[in-house]
Amino acid sequence: MFFKFQIIRYWLLIRFRKPRSKTALQKLQKKNWHKFQQVLLRSPFYRDKVQENTPLAAYPLMNKASFMKQFDQINTQNIRVDEAYKVAQEAEKSRDFSPEINHITVGLSSGTSGNRGIFLASQKERAFWVAAVLDRVIGFSLKKRSVAFFLRANSNLYSSVKSRILSFAFFDLYDALAQHVSRLNALQPTILVAQPSMLLDLAQEVKAGRLQIHPQKIISVAEVLYPEDKAVLEATFGQTIHQVYQCTEGFLASTCAYGTLHFNEDFLIIEKKFLDESKTRFHPIITDLKRSSQPIVRYELNDIIQEKTDCPCGSPMMGIAQIEGRADDVLVFKNVEGQTIKIYPDFFRRAIIAADAAIQDYTLVQRNAHLLELYIQGTEEHFQKAKRNIDALLNKYQAKAVTIIRTTIKHHEQGNKLRRIKYEKN
């Protein structure tokens, strides 16, 4: 019962203290950063920085490798990395996600960008997360609702969102599609939460008449939602597809009423590491002012973000025009002068889908500087059209001696994140 009171309290704070202007937002961030110093004093890694009154900009820049290397020193719960790994890995093997360490929930990231990360969450942090999800994602309602959510792994974090009027059903991504269809038809969920790749599979089942559900809201999570996939899903389900941007490092962004992702800057501080001279693309550097078990301070994500500045909702919180993918999905070539050139994945995506309106399912994998493997679900003519557009793009950048071959392998395994454009050495 106390846990539910915590959720209500946090929901009220999130809901009614939402900043309405940039000035109010900056004031709230400054206040939360000051309060956050008490958390950092409990972290052996950050304690000295607080005592020296170090400004945020002077804190060390972290990434997954450095963060995991300092795991034991960063967390405030005296939890060792080997202990946390053991609990989380055993949970994934047994598919029983209830075990904790000293009442702290432990989970693993999907590991698509290398070694798997570990996240920790106390009951207080879980309550805040639930409140944020209720406010930003699911929406508060007194009507009875059911939520079907698809994930690679369940967690106490997700199963916390449960009450008499809101029920959650976990769908394991590793289960067969036919099993999902049967369960969904029986459940008739009010809200459907899944990866874009799973939503696309479910859309095919809807078109085939095997899946007959009418959710009031559909939320895309865990993967990049490409514009062309979004269009297919909205046409199939007849509604706006909402999004959540969340990873091991926290609940980062969710869509407004107009479908634009906005960073949750009322409890995050976002710095930008620009990736191009035009400053149109950046890596977000995250400081989460509500994480106490495992402080996230100046953590650089390798996601490639394009900012949106003209959302009609008027929110002072930073909008996202597109999440292109990850930095390691930027394709690398040599030009005619032997210089290294980099081409962002979004340019290849646009080249492929512009080739023919019938092209909806594809992947492009770079094996080395001279070889691309292109999967196109369609005819040889569709492949040739896409290949011509890619060749034109490569010629524009003067990429030298690049061969494009057709493959029948989509390079996507069930349960893993779909990456349509990726750099993957042999």
How would you concisely characterize the structure shown here?
With 426 residues, the chain is an alpha/beta fold.
Describe the structure.
This protein is an alpha/beta fold. The protein has helices at 2-16, 22-40, 47-51, 64-69, 71-74, 81-94, 123-138, 156-159, 177-187, 196-208, 227-237, 345-353, 380-396, and strands spanning 100-101, 104-108, 118-121, 145-151, 166-172, 191-194, 217-220, 241-247, 250-255, 261-263, 268-274, 281-288, 296-300, 303-308, 319-326, 331-334, 340-343, 362-368, 371-376, 403-406, 421-423. The strands form four sheets. Strands 4, 5, 6, 7, 8, 9, 10, 11, 12, 13, 14 and 15 form a twelve-stranded mixed beta sheet that branches. A four-stranded mixed beta sheet has the order 20-19-18-21, covered by helices on one side. The radius of gyration is 22 Å and the shape is globular. The protein starts with a helix and ends with a strand.
List the keywords.
426 residues; alpha/beta; Alpha-Beta Plaits; 2 domains; twelve-stranded mixed sheet; 21 strands
User: So what's the CATH class of the largest domain?
Assistant: Alpha Beta
Looking at CATH, which topology of the largest domain would you report? Rossmann fold
Number of domains: 2
Q: Roughly what fraction of the amino acids lie in strands?
A: 25-35%
Poorly predicted residue ranges: none
What is the number of strand segments?
Answer: 21
What does the average pLDDT come to?
A: 88
- Specify the CATH homologous superfamily of the largest domain: ANL, N-terminal domain
What is the number of helices? 13
Shape: globular
Distance between the termini: 54 Å
| Strand-pairing-aware structural class | alpha/beta
Approximately how much helix is present in the residues?
Answer: 25-40%
Q: Return Rg in Å.
A: 22 Å
Major sheet size, sense and barrel closure: 12 strands, mixed
At CATH level 2, the architecture of the largest domain is: 3-Layer(aba) Sandwich
